[in-house]
Amino acid sequence: MKEFLNWSKRCVVVCVLLVFCFFWGSTAYAVEILMGNEGMLVFEPCELTIAVGDTVTFRNNELPPHNMMVADHPEYSHSDLAFAPGESFDVTFDKAGDYRFQCDPHAGAGMIGVIHVE
Ligand SMILES: [Cu+2]
Questions:
Q1: Does residue 97 sit within a domain?
Q2: How far is the CA of 107 from the centre of ligand 1 (A)?
């Protein structure tokens, strides 16, 4: 009997995890890209793949000011420079494509990235 209870408890845990994973996987998820990281003028991560409709949060981390300009896509760009630590802005990508972006003040230092929207 005790063994049966243990087994049924495990079953409940597995079921809860499965339900959790199902809902987690089905919601549009939010991703964060840090601007400036570990003393480097970089986007971290500088490449990622998201689904159509997903929102990316760009957050000031180190060495501001930063902005985020998407080549040929002013509608996704954020030209205003973020100065304050932790300052952030959200960009929702509602069309599939590969979007190359850069931080205008630091593009020459390699602060560039690409987002693949599938
Ligand atoms: Cu920058």
A1: yes
A2: 7
Name the pLDDT band for 30 (thresholds 50, 70, 90): confident
Q: Which two tokens stand for residue 38?
A: 């570990």
103 noted as active-site residue? yes
Q: Which two tokens stand for residue 58?
A: 């760009």
- Cβ atoms of 54 and 28 within 8 Å: the answer is yes
Q: Is the pLDDT of residue 27 over 50?
A: yes
Ligand 1 centre to CA of 51 (Å) is 25
Tokens 């560039």 -> residue: 112
Whole-structure pTM over 0.85, yes or no? Answer: no
**CATH code (residue 41):** 2.60.40.420
Structural domain range at position 75 = 29-117
Element (H, E) at 14: helix 2-26
pLDDT for residue 63 is more than 90: yes
User: Is 73 noted as a catalytic residue in this protein?
Assistant: no
User: Is 69 inside any structural domain?
Assistant: yes
